[in-house]
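User: I'm new to structure prediction. If I give you an amino acid sequence, what do you actually give back? Let's try with this one:
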Amino acid sequence: MNRTLVTLSLFVNYFVFAILLNSVGTVILQVQNTYGVSESAAAVLEAFKDLPIAITSFLIASFIARIGYRQSMQIALALVAAAALAMPSLPAFWMSKVMFAATGVGFALVKISVFATIGVVTDSRKAHAGMMNFLESFFMVGVLSGYFLFSAFVDDAQPESLAWLNVYYVLAGLALLAFVLLSAARIDTPVPDDAEKSLEREFVDMLRLVALPLVLVFIVSAFLYVLIEQSIMSWLPTFNSRILNLSPSLSIEMASILAAATALGRFAAGFVLQRFDWSRVLLTSLVCAAILVLLALPLAGSTSEQPITAWSAAPLAAFVFPLIGFLLAPVYPAINSVILSSLPKQRHAAMAGLIVVFSALGGTSGSMITGALFQAFGGKTAFYFSLLPIVAMFIAVLVFKRLSEQTPGPESSS
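Assistant: Good question. You get back a string of structure tokens that encode the predicted 3D arrangement of the chain. For your 414 residues, that looks like this:
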């Protein structure tokens, strides 16, 4: 197995799905402008993305090794390429739902395969944590690229224009390119301990992981983190447009600050977590994130009556609030690495399935709650809501740290 080629293919796959998955905030704004749907109706797109992720992960994670990690990722890329090609031909809100459903199914296959493959190409906890953070930082580079890619196709002069749908031709091309690259890589899929084990038994074994206290607390932590992240990421373009009065294209472009801050934070965390205790890094990050919310949102006061079209004219809040991404960045990769490093490699695919399931449920919950709060009370109140799960996350990390210290790594338990 060529580890360099395998690693490159993982990064490219994650890049493609980063753009597709995190375009939900942009599409939420655009379907309001193009199809005239309400905030609460547009928020349903998050569910069309996340519920297929959860359902697919729940059903296939326990036996994805039988399919093969590479084959699973190829199926995912082919699926999203086909859906992307259909988007411009079927310009309707329901097609946006179909696009995100296909993206959700595809991402479930990709994320489980990628997380399981990391265990194959790394040989220590520190190496695992480092690669996890570098991979997640590259994911955020994809998110960042997606904002500029979509904004290039948005017509500010005609917000109701369908021209933005042409971006999906580019995305289909990227998915097919990733498919070709993956075809050149060979991935050694670990053979299960019991190759004759029935699919039902494998599924039950995955569910039994939830009974482990460490896994249960991890699930709560992952759910809360993604709830926070997606509630902000999915609604930041709308916040920029409706509250800060930025033009549609500028609203999308400036949301990229969040992605850039998160990418930088995860890249830095790849080094920091190899030198400092992960729990102290995460607890400090969460405290600082809560402080930033309290300092940044009051800056979103009165703005210009005319839509703002230039970065230089944007209010301070548009620059400061997205920096929360840098502070929250280390949390998700770190807790994922801790839980996976605590289990034998043969159980990584099943654990990755649980990670994806509860992350998806957290993302859907965060986006839909924020959408409802946005429509009922306004954007500032909706974003103040993030303080509650941040506090809960702080408590969960404390418990997770204590339990992880009581759990030996797979190398010491064999």
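You can read the tokens as a compact description of the fold. Here is one thing that stands out. The chain has a mean pLDDT of 81.
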